[in-house]
Amino acid sequence: MLTPGHIALGYLVSVSFLKITHADGMFDADTLNVLLLTGSLMGTAPDLDFLPFFIKHRSLKLVQNDSHRSYATHAPLFWLIISLLAYFSFGRTLFAAYLGGIILLGTWSHFLADSFEYGIGWLRPFSQKRYAVWNYPEERTTMRQHILLRHYFEFLKIYVKSRTFPFEIVAVLAAAAVLAT
Ligand SMILES: [Zn+2]
Questions:
Q1: Closest Cα to residue 171, out of 40, 43, 36, 9?
Q2: How do residues 121-135 score in pLDDT, each as one tens digit?
Q3: In Å, how far are 62, 79, 142, 156 from 70, measured between CA atoms?
Q4: d(CA 177, CA 68)
């Protein structure tokens, strides 16, 4: 899933969480918006490990035995710890509790989406095994190296045929529909 889909999913789980817990009765509109924005950004936050990966390899191409998904920010435990830190921050207020919950839901929605095809090491660092619903499309692992824009274009050509792509479309449309109501 690409950044728009991850943000859309982060937004959807945050909206649901705030609705189910009747957060609108506890916070003012500004605070609710801060929580929604945080949750949406958390949906894509684990992919920030693209940056150190890019700096290390000077390439976004798949490098044998190294993937940006093998970095700490793609470990669910990492974000569980961050969300607990948030939960116990700000003098343990109700806002802090919600912040912790939103961080956990947003980032873990990312890992669920990544588990469709790429696979996530849910038990890291205790086990390196990656869990995926479907196998990684084979073409992706044999992509040749191109300059960045060309690489992204080649990636998209394969990505639109992947099984994750329809989920991404649905997530973005659903988020747009919720945002419009
Ligand atoms: Zn990811």
A1: 9
A2: 999 999 988 888 887
A3: 12, 14, 18, 22
A4: 32
Per-residue pLDDT at 117 exceeds 60 = yes
Question: How far, in Å, from the CA of 69 to the mean position of ligand 1?
Answer: 6
Spacing, Cα 10 to ligand 1 middle (Å): 12
Q: Which of 109, 88, 105 is nearest to 97 (CA)?
A: 88
| Cα–Cα distance, 181 to 179 (Å, whole number) | 6
The pLDDT of residue 171 is 96
What residues pack around ion ligand 1 (CB closer than 5 A)?
A: 47, 114
- Ligand 1 mean position, distance from CA 53 (Å): 13
List, as one string, the DSSP characters of 60-106. Answer: -SPBTTB-GGGSGGG-HHHHHHHHHHHHT-GGG-HHHHHHHHHHHHH
